[in-house]
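To close the section, here is one more complete example, presented without commentary so you can practise reading it yourself. The ligand is sodium ion.
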Amino acid sequence: PNQDEDNLRSPICCIMGHVDTGKTKLLDCIRGTNVQEGEAGGITQQIGATYFPAENIRERTKELKADAKLKVPGLLVIDTPGHESFTNLRSRGSGLCDIAILVVDIMHGLEPQTIESLNLLKMRNTEFIVALNKVDRLYGWKVCKNAPIVKAMKQQSKDVQFEFNTRLTQIVTQFKEQGINTELYYKNKEMGKDTFSIVPTSAISGEGIPDMLLLLVQWTQKTMIERLTYSNEVQCTVLEVKVVEGHGTTIDVVLVNGVLHEGDQIVVCGMQAWKSPFYVHYLSLGPIVTSIRALLTPHPMKELRVKGTYLHHKKIKAAQGIKITAQGFEHAIAGTSLYVVGPDDDVEDIKEAAMED
Ligand code: GTP
Ligand code: MG
Ligand code: NA
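Output:
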């Protein structure tokens, strides 16, 4: 076996699409959680991150009897908001990922933020699969809980199959109008060669979820070995700056590559507010140099953005969603990079780099 294959980081997958197409619900279905119902107005307003260990993916996909073995340690999935006002978060999320899931509601077809997401993915040449979600809403759909989609489809009446095919054809045409060729994944022999795969799913009854997971993992393993080869160079983005009881101001980050240790000296970009005697507020940018007090993650298959119990780590390898506690994060800025000051690094150089974001 290729030596590189033993040294792979987890791929990062971003889930994108129009508001209420079921992005968070799909993740809830895989996690066995109920994050979506806890959201204000049922609307996602932050970037989320969830780590799925390889053994959970193996378990969830075993009915597909995939012979290809899983070489990656797991999969880090980034949830993004679909509401039109969060273009910046969609852009940030799509900038972090190796592969994406573009979620389309089978009852609605392509919608404005589907197209916006598609354009972000095109711009970065990011590979993606289309989850054609809410198939359970086809009139007369017979639930086959968590079944692979081909198996579930065989259980459906002629009428359901007809409605499915009609809607699928319309949606394939809509993609074509955007300059994108798509095809049902199990008919797509050309996969990746200009034709993107569609996986029909239901986030409520779980049909197609095994297919979606397997496709993501196999696809990244097959085509991105070089990109996924673990590197010692830290690549890390700040998602959120949050006050957490008992921890002070923390930052939630996505570690894309490399490793972080407790005690590492780090630099992030900050914003300082000064109050003058004339009550005028001045804002100035400045680097925050501090050291990692604690590296915390949620439990596997739990969402980073949801309050819960955390696991403490001495060190963490990419890819992961991590909550970092340290002094001085009060004015850290979301969306910027985190830098580690290595033994051979000059802290002044790193400070300069941090301010260039
Ligand atoms: P934003 O993050 O706000 O953009 O929305 P989202 O894409 O994450 O969608 P969300 O998971 O919030 O789901 C929106 C609504 O659709 C909720 O009421 C879900 O219960 C429902 N829903 C999601 N997926 C499915 C599905 O597969 N079938 C059915 N019937 N309903 C679904
Ligand atoms: Mg959501
Ligand atoms: Na929603």
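Once you have examined the tokens, check your reading against these statements. The chain has a mean pLDDT of 93. Residues 234 and 258 are 4 Å apart (CA to CA).
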